[in-house]
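Quick note —
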Amino acid sequence: MSFDRQELSHALAIHNKVARVVVADVRGSAPREVGASMLVWKTENGLEQSGTIGGGALEYEAAAMAFDRHGVTRHPLGPSLGQCCGGSVTLLTEQFTQAPKGNVFARGPGDMPLAVRKLLAEARGQGTRLAPQLIEGWMIEPFAAPQTPLWIYGAGHVGRALVATLSPLPEFDITWVDTGMNRFPDSVAKGVTVVPAADPCMAARHAPDDAQHLILTFSHQIDLDLCHTILQQPFAFCGLIGSDTKWARFRNRLANLGHSDAQILRICCPIGQKSLGKHPQAIAIGVAAALLSSAGTTAATRGIAI
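Predicted structure written out below.
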C-alpha cells in the first residue's frame, strides 16, 4: 500500500479540502491492512468518499468524523463498534488543502524520532521502498509509484471486461483505443483515457516507450496491423488475443513483413489462462493476475505467458 498523491490531487482540484483516513496500525484480526485509506469530502448533500478502510461501523464512524478528528485514534473492533473481528485498528485522520510533496510522507507530533530518521536514511542509502508503518507516533508512507501505461485496443466484450477488472487498480494508467466512439460503453471508469481512432495504429504510435499493450479488436487485420506497428517501436510488453492457429498465421505474416523471430516472440499470444475458460471476465482475470504478478518488471522480460 502507498499514499496515492495523484488521487488526492484530483479530489482537491474538485473539492478544495479533503480528509484522508489511513489504517496506521493493526493488532489482531482486522478488515484491512496497514496503509489502506479512504478520502472524504463535503458536498451539498453531506459527505462522500472514495476508497475503503474495511467497511462496517469503523468506516462509517471514521467518515462521519473525518473533518472533526486530526491525528491518531485507536479503535477496538468489539461490541462498541458492532464488529467481531476481535482485533484493534489505529487510524490516522488528516485534512488536506494541497497534496504533500517528496518521495516519502513522514509526519507526527514533535521532533522526528531517531528510529524514524534512521529508517528513512537506510531506505535512501539502500534504495529500498518503505512499507507504511507507525513508529513512535509518526506515520511513514511511501507515495504511490508512477503508474504503468497500459494500452488496450478493442472495446468489445473482452476489452470491456479487462477495463472493468483493471481500472480500479492503482498500478495502471489505462488508454483505451477503438475505431469510433460508438464502440465504447456509455459510461467509462474514472481515470481511463478513451481514444476513438479510425486507424488504431496511428494512436499506438503515440504510446510511451514503457507501455504495455493488449490487442483484442474486432478485426484480425487491425490486430495484425497493431502488432506490426508496435514491433517497430519501443514497448515493455505486448499481448494478443487469439488461438494457437491465429498466432501461427500471425507469426508467418509478421515474418514476411520483415520482423525477426526474436522480435515476433516478444508478442505473447494467446492471452489469459486457458484453465479459466474463454468467458471474457475469465480472460480478464487471467490477464490481470499475470500483469500484477509481473509488477516491478515486465512480463516480456520475465517470460511470463499470459
